[in-house]
Every structure is written in structure tokens, then in C-alpha cells.
Amino acid sequence: MKTITPYDRIPTIFGAVITQNVDPTLHKKVIAACSSAFGTDTKDNHDKNYPYLVNLYRTEENPSISPTVISAYRANLGGNAKIINGEYNLYTAEFFKYTKAFEELLSDSAELGRSFISPDVNSLPRAVQIHSFRALWTTAIAPFIQECEQHGIHYFFGQVSIPQKGYTPDEIKEIIAMYVANYGSKEFFKPKKPLSFNGKEFTAQEVIEIAKQCGFIGDGEKDFNTLKTRFRSRGKSIPMLLEKYPKLCGWNPDGIICNMPAESHVGTYDIPFCMDSNLFTQEGRADYFSLVYKQNAFTAFFPKRKRKNN
């Protein structure tokens, strides 16, 4: 089993492995943990199509004991997608139709899919609980993005979730308006079921109207700060990735596309996005990839692609 350099500041060992290429038994264990974390009402039918980037935990005192799955991130290459019964077998395709413009990018893309933290984390040492998400990013997600880039893949797409609980419909509309108004210059994704509130469809025209009401000026970074100030005055915050992804692209509207969202089956409103890593800024990379450890297991994702020449 291949693992990355261990964290040396906490008494645990985190490893990133690829379930379908390293250990089929582990993949089954991950699916079981995933199902437990998501609950019976939040599972989907795509797990069999995806490898998982897995974080493992084992004590230094008993390194021979089978490690516990603490978290995982589901990801795959767009080039691996297949059309089955008229639809792509990717998670985003369950909620969105891909436009022709996006389909032209699919072979040079990777889908950043769902993540989970196992309920077992609650019984592990406090250090593991605190670092579980951080470890998931630094040992799995970010190295996966970097490895993709080494193979010439530079489009990264997925869904950023806004939880229904904790926000009013008007607040959710404000978040959507900020992102779609600033980063919706191209249409890559169309929701299969238009988003509605209280039985009324939420339209692109309403996005424009709300953006004006909120005082958005068409500058992503400034409009985000305006939005953040509005929410802070209410004692609320904005989901982290809704800041991280545009910031990674320097708030450049050419670097990230966000289209109208759809309601998922896990109690969230999901904004589809696509980033072009060619437009990641040095500042964004320094912030996002500063703690990344190299991981050679990711070559299993690319059996037929040659590494891009530097």
C-alpha cells in the first residue's frame, strides 16, 4: 500500500491511497464508510464508477493493524466518462446537462466529486478529528489536482454546496446571485430541474435583479467581500469553497465558470463550477498548495496518458 509522507506533528499517520487500483477490499470498506457517513437517504449510484482518494489512520504503536478509513474524496477523469442510457456516468451529470461547449473540454478535465468524513472519526483522538479535513485536502485532493496538471489536464469541475439548513431562501438567492452574476459568462451546465423556491422558479433575470439590490458591481472579489459583510452582520458565514475556488483563480471570471444551481438529494443547493488551472494565480497556489505532499500513487489514474513535459 503506497502512502505519502506522514504528518509529523500529531501522533497519527495519514495516507492517501487509490482504492480501485491498490486494494479492492479497501474500496468496499470505503463504500461502507461512505454510506454510513451520508446516510441511507443520501447515497447515489455512482460509487462503482469512481476511485476514491482515501485518508487512513493508524496508531504508531500498532502500525500492523488494518488502518481505519477516516475520510475520502471521490474524483475521476472526465476522459473516463461513459455515456450510459444517454447520460454521462458522472455525479454532476445526475443534476446537470453538459453543454456542447463543456463537452469539448471533458477529455482534458477532472471531476472533483463528493467527500466525506467517517462517523468513526468521533471516536478517534482529538488531533485526528481536528486535522481530518485538512489532511484530506493536503494528502489527496490537492496532489490529485497537481498530478492532473502534470498530465496536461487543467479543467476541474464539480459542485459547490450551499446547505439548506442555516440559510433563508433570500440568503441562498444572494449567494447564487453573486457567483452566477460574476462567473456565469459561459454556460457549461444546465440544471435538469430548474431551481425553485416556494413553487416559483428562480430565473437568471432574478439573479440580475438581486445582484443590483445587494450592490454588487461586477468585481468578484469586491462583491464577495460585500456578500461576506452582509452575512457577517447576521452572524453567518459563506461556505468555504465558495471563497477558495474563485480566490485560487485570482477572482478572474475567465478562470472559473459558475452556472445556475440545482437542488441535490442531500439537502443542498449545488452551484456547478469549472476552473481552468492555467489561470490559477501564484498567490492562489501558494495559499492552496503550500502543505501538499507528493504522492506517486496517482499515476494509477493515468495508465494511458503521458506525463506533460515541463
Q: Can you tell me about this structure?
A:
- This protein has 310 residues and is an alpha+beta fold.
- It contains 9 helices and 14 strands.
- It has helices at 19-22, 24-38, 100-103, 126-150, 169-183, 204-213, 220-232, 241-248, 282-289, and strands at residues 15-18, 52-57, 68-77, 83-84, 87-88, 96-98, 109-117, 155-163, 189-191, 196-197, 200-201, 256-258, 262-263, 268-276.
- The strands form 4 sheets. Strands 1, 2, 3, 7, 8, 12, 13 and 14 form an 8-stranded mixed beta sheet that branches.
- Strand 13 (262-263) and strand 14 form a beta hairpin.
- Helix 5 packs across helix 6 and helix 5 (169-183) packs antiparallel against helix 7.
- The longest helix is centred in the middle third of the chain and has 25 residues, at 126-150.
- The chain is globular and about 60 Å long.
- The chain starts with 14 loop residues before the first strand and ends in a 21-residue tail after the last helix.
- Mean pLDDT is 79; it is low at 1-14 and 293-297.
In short:
This protein has helices spanning 19-22, 24-38, 100-103, 126-150, 169-183, 204-213, 220-232, 241-248, 282-289, and strands spanning 15-18, 52-57, 68-77, 83-84, 87-88, 96-98, 109-117, 155-163, 189-191, 196-197, 200-201, 256-258, 262-263, 268-276. It is α+β, with helices and mostly antiparallel strands.
Q: Topology, pairings included?
A:
Layout: E1 15-18, H1 19-22, H2 24-38, E2 52-57, E3 68-77, E4 83-84, E5 87-88, E6 96-98, H3 100-103, E7 109-117, H4 126-150, E8 155-163, H5 169-183, E9 189-191, E10 196-197, E11 200-201, H6 204-213, H7 220-232, H8 241-248, E12 256-258, E13 262-263, E14 268-276, H9 282-289
Parallel strand pairs: 7-8
Antiparallel strand pairs: 1-2, 2-3, 3-7, 4-5, 6-9, 8-14, 10-11, 12-14, 13-14
